[in-house]
Amino acid sequence: xxxxxxxxxxxxxxxxxxxxxxxxxxxxxxxxxxxxxxxxxxxxxxxxxxxxxxxxxxxxxxxxxxxxxxxxxxxxxxxxxxxxxxxxxxxxxxxxxxxxxxxxxxxxxxxxxxxxxxxxxxxxxxxxxxxxxxxxxxxxxxxxxxxxxxxxxxxxxxxxxxxxxxxxxxxxxxxxxxxxxxx
Length: 183
Description:
There is one protein chain. The chain is mainly α and 183 residues long. The chain has three domains: 2-46; 48-110, Alpha-Beta Plaits, CATH 3.30.70; 117-183, no CATH class. It has eight helices and three strands, in the order ααβαββααααα. A three-stranded antiparallel beta sheet has the order 1-3-2, with helices on one face. The protein starts with a helix and ends in a 15-residue tail after the last helix. The model is unreliable at 170-183 (pLDDT under 50).
C-alpha cells in the first residue's frame, strides 16, 4: 500500500516539475475557482428556502404572529417593513393552520372577512361571483382531485373580484371585467 502511494506521489512530482510556471499558475487558479464554486454551491443548496406566511399585515397582527412564532421556536424573517413574515417553505401551510386556529391574523381585511363583506358566504354567492352554478361550486369544493383548468379559472375569477373589491375601496378601477363591488 505504501509503495503504491509512494509511486503515485513520485509520478505526480515528476509531472508537476515538467510543466511551466504559467501552467502551474493556471492550474492553481482553476483549483481555487473550483473550491470557491463548490463552497458557494454548498451554501446555496443548504440555504433554507423561505416563503411568505402572511403579507400586507397590520402591525398588531404581525406582532401577534411573531410572538406565536417565537413561542413555538419557529425561525422567521420579516420583509416589506414588517408587513410580510417569511418562514421555511415546507412549514407554511402547517403554520397558517396553526395561526388560523389561534385567530391570527385578526384584522378585518383578512381571511373570511373579505368574503363576508362582499356577501360571499354560500355556494350560491360563490357561484354568482365566479359565474358557475351553485351545484358546480359545491362539486369543486368537495372534489378531491381537480381537473386541469379548474385552478386557473378560479384564480382568474379571484383576480377580477379582488380588482373590483379594490375599486370599491378607492383602488384602481377594473376596466373591462364588468364586475362591480357588492356592498
